Every structure is written in structure tokens, then in C-alpha cells.
Amino acid sequence: MTTSFTAAGQAQGRRNPDGVLFRSESLSKSFGGVHAVRDISLNIPHGGVFAIIGPNGAGKSTLLNLMSGLYQPNSGTMNLDGVDIVGLPAHRRVRLGLARTFQKIRLFKHLPVLDNVLAGFHIHHDIPAWQYVAHGTAFRHDYARCRDEASKLLTFVGLDGRAKARAGSLPYGEQRMLELARALATSPRLLLVDEPAAGLNAAEVEKLLDRITQLRAGGMTIVIVEHNMDLVMKIADRVLVMDYGQYLFEGTPAEAQLNPSVILAYLGA
Amino acid sequence: MSSWEHPRLVGPLDRSSGTSRRCWLLATMVSIALLPLAFQDSYWRANLVVCALNVMLAIGLDFILGYAGQLNLGHSAFYGIGAYASTLLIMKLGVPFWIAFLCGIVVAGAAGMALSMFAVRLRGHYLAIASLGFAVIVHQVLVNWINLTQGPLGIYGIKPPPEITLPGLPVISFGNSANMFYLIAGFALAFYVLLDQLVRSPIGETLTAIREDEVSAASLGINCMAWKVFAFGTGSAVAGAAGAFYASFVGTLVPDSFIITESFTILAMVIVGGMGTLIGPVWGAILLTVLPEVLRGFGDLRLVLYGAALTLVVLFMPGGIVQAAQIVRAHLDRLRSRLKSG
Description:
The complex is a heterodimer. By secondary structure, chain A is of the alpha/beta class. Chain A folds into two domains: 2-97 and 187-267, 3-Layer(aba) Sandwich (Rossmann fold); 112-186, no CATH class. Chain A is built from ten helices and ten strands. Chain A has helices spanning 2-12, 60-68, 90-95, 113-119, 137-156, 172-184, 202-217, 229-235, 253-258, 260-267; strands spanning 20-31, 34-45, 48-53, 75-80, 83-84, 98-100, 190-194, 221-225, 238-243, 246-251. Chain A is globular and about 60 Å long. Chain A starts with a helix and ends with a helix. Chain B has helices at residues 18-38, 42-67, 75-93, 97-118, 124-144, 146-149, 177-200, 202-212, 214-219, 224-250, 260-273, 279-294, 301-316, 320-341. The longest helix of chain B has 27 residues, at 224-250. By secondary structure, chain B is mainly alpha-helical. Chain B contains 14 helices and no strands. The chains are: A alpha/beta, B mainly alpha. Chains A and B meet through α3, α4 and α5 of A and α7, α8 and α9 of B.
């Protein structure tokens, strides 16, 4: 079932020869005098979980916002599967197969759970323009397909049966899962997850890890910004460690744990 | 991230079935057919026509405000643009009514799109001020461009829409207010059905997503700017149609008919009815057109009563008439189940 979420993205993808899905070179972003991200170069391979870690204020979320298009970089290049995405607005990047969740949950909290997911199908509707005014067969087919896929996604994140609840009324952990379902509705190839474990209890973190593992098994590439080292050790294939907006280390989680400069950044001198 | 809170309705979005909607459509058509027969005197018939015009204005504004969440306080400007564009084409260039009517719709819609494009970075209160400013500018242009609009003197002798001759039927003339009501109410119903189809399609989901959170909407691939322009264009085009009908119904056109307070009246109709639903503003428009007429017996006190009623609704029933109906229905359901159980 997990594979179906990525199928649309995979079909249109032109793979980079070197197996790199997302590549950035000397990416920088500053706010006034604060260099939030300085000279970051990244190679995120197809498939797997790529974690971005670092102490508070290391620039992880800013980097994610640069990737998703919420911010535009001051300098540097970004490239998603061969397409230059610098300057491309966030909504255009979604069509290239890039989706995200937010650190501070940004659901449509006054709308029902189902409607939150349905909005995620925006780029996948298959309706001739005139049928928006005179609903016909294609419209009804699309309507049924979207509701069917939405309920599959809600089942996947464990929110089946909550479709009619108001999104803002869900407990925090379920809101995080709903945001994941909404992002998956866009059928991403590259999913950016910003601090998914923040505010979750141990059981909810387990559930989240399980879903991310399933998505990875389905071939999705996942970039996860995370604070929680234990979680990163469990799930990540590669980690990028940042400190003060700069590159500190890149490698496997096990290597990161042994690296003296990473230890220094985390524990302080 | 808008700085104003959109009032929310209780309960899930209306997803009534196709059959019940067809029943309502039929009931509405029958009511439209019967209303002029129930009100024979010309005063109330004129009020019926004004009701139909206000319904058009209210549903157009609701599409922009209630669905796309764009705080538009310049709706009177689009009304005026539609009225003056169509009338000037008829009077100055001798364009046939129905072509001028279409032009009025297009020009008003284009003005709405232009305003939203200029105001693309403005949200909430800032957009409200910008749209209000737009309405003031349009009103001032209508007052001061005397060569074109004859300013405050106004344009007189605007003819009603041309007679329609259908084979086998008597000639339909729009000189009488009953036929005028049928025409305008028919168009109001058509626009209602059109907007209803739009908001029940994925476009409705897209617009409400923008209303709720633009950053989230963009993260789902929604081009917020393009859809806001679409919403503004559609809503103001409907106002343009109302304007073209207004001119041909009243027969005279003065700029003060489209003064900014008219925007607030339309806004009040949308709020009192229940923004974010299409049926609410229809009832809001009917209520706020009829109420001042009914209260006329109270003299100047009617303005106080009208203002008090508006304030109470906004304070205690931010979802308007629709919310009130939902509450009443919920109480009835509870009562019914209690009666059944014992």
C-alpha cells in the first residue's frame, strides 16, 4: 500500500545519473546580520531517510524552509532531480514531487480532518475545466477517487474514523499524523519532515517511526529535521550535522556519534 | 497568517445530497414565480427586485470573503463599475443591452482581478483598507469624470432590457416590475447555482485552504495568488451583473448609489446570513433588504433598531442565520430523539 503514494512521482522522475535526488551547493541564507544557513552543500540520495541534526538554532529548520521554498536563499544552488529550483515558489516545487510538514503544526484547523487531506490532492485532480461548473462523469470519478485515497491515507496514519472531526480538536499527536497524511496526498518523491517527534509521547513516536519506515520501504526519500538523537539513530541512513548555520559533519548516524566535533557541539566544551 | 479571525460555523460543511438540492432548486423556482403574484403593489415589487440584486451582490462577496477569506470592503465599486460600464456602452455607443450586460460583467471582473493583483501581498486588515480605498477612488472617479458620467447630475432615461419575443408566446416586456423581477431573480439563481457548483468542486477545497492558511496551502501546491485573483474576478463579475441590471431597473444612475457604505451593507448581509456558506448570504440579503422597509413605521428609530440587530448578530451569532438554523435543528433533533426514547 505504501508504494502507491509515491507511484505518481516515480513515473515522471528523471533520475540523476549519480543516484542523487536533491543536491545543493554552497547554500546560504541570512536574516539581517544573522547567518542562519552558511555555505551548506548537500547530496541527498534516492530513497532512504536523510536526517539533519544539530543543536538549537543550528539552522536546520531554515535549511528545510529553503528546500521547500518558504524562503529563497541569498546564494547557492539547489537542484531536485536535475531541475534547478532556486527562485521557484513553494507551490511549484510541490509539482516536482516535494512535500513537507511543519514544525509548528499548520493544519486547516477549522476544517474537518477529511477536508485537510482532500486539499492535498490539489495538483492531482483530473477534471476537464467545464466540469467544475457542470459536474459530470469525470468529476464524479475524481470525487470518488480522492475520497477513497484520502480514507486510505487516514487509515495509514491511524486516523480512520476521525474523518469528520474538526482538525483543531484532535490531540496533538493525531494532528502531527494528519499533517503527514496531508503531505502524502500530494504524492511526493521527497518528503521533508520538520521535527516530527516534538511534543509526542513515546508511543506516538514509535507509531511515527513505523510509518516513516513503511514510506521508506515504498521508495520515498525522506528528509527529517530532528532534535531527538535516539530517534535519528534508529531511523536515519545518513545524517548531516549543522552548528551555527554551518556544515559540521555528514555520514552515517554511527559515525556521527563517534565524531569529536559533533560531540563537542552537542555537549558543549 | 491573516490577522483577522474568520468566524467559523458549527458542524461540518454542508454535503447535502443531489436530490435534496434539486428539491430546493425547484422550491426556489416556484417561490420566484409566485412572489410577484403575492405582492401586487409596485412598492413591494420594487423591493423584490432590490432583494434579487442584493442576493447577487451578497453571494459574489461571499465567494471572495467567505470562501477565499479575502476581506474585501470594495464590493460597491464592482457594482458601480458594472452599472456604469454597461450603461455608458448603451447610451454613448448604442451597444445592444445584452452585449453591454456582458461587457459590464467582464469589466467588473477585470477590475476585481486587477485589484487583487495589486494587493497580492496584502492580507486581512491591510487588504480591507486597500479595497476600501479602491471603492473610494471608483466613487470619486464617477463623481468627477463629468464628461463621461455626468458626475453627480447622473444619467437619466436608461431603458429597461429589450422586449423578448418568443414564438407562440406573448411579447415579454421588462417595463413592468414583475417581469424585471423574474429576469433578475432568474439570473441571481443562475449565479447561485454556478457558485454552488464551484464551491462543491475541488475549487471550494482550494479556496478554503487559502482562507485557513496560505503557507500550508502553498505547501500543497496551491498557487495562492492565482486563486485569490480567480476568487476576486468571479465575485466581482457577479457584482458587475447586478450593476448592469440595477441601472436598467432604476433608469437613472448617480455615483452615490455606489458609495462605500453600500459595501458595508453588502458585508452585513454576508455576515448576518453566515459567511462561508452560499445559502446564508441569500437569507442575509433578503432579511436586510426587507427589515428596513418593515421598520419604516418606526421612523428614525429604525436605524437604531437595524444597528442593534446587526450588533447582536455579530456578538452572539457570528455564524449568522445559518448558525442559528443549525442550532435550532440540533435542538429539534435532540427533542425528537428524547420523545422517541420515552
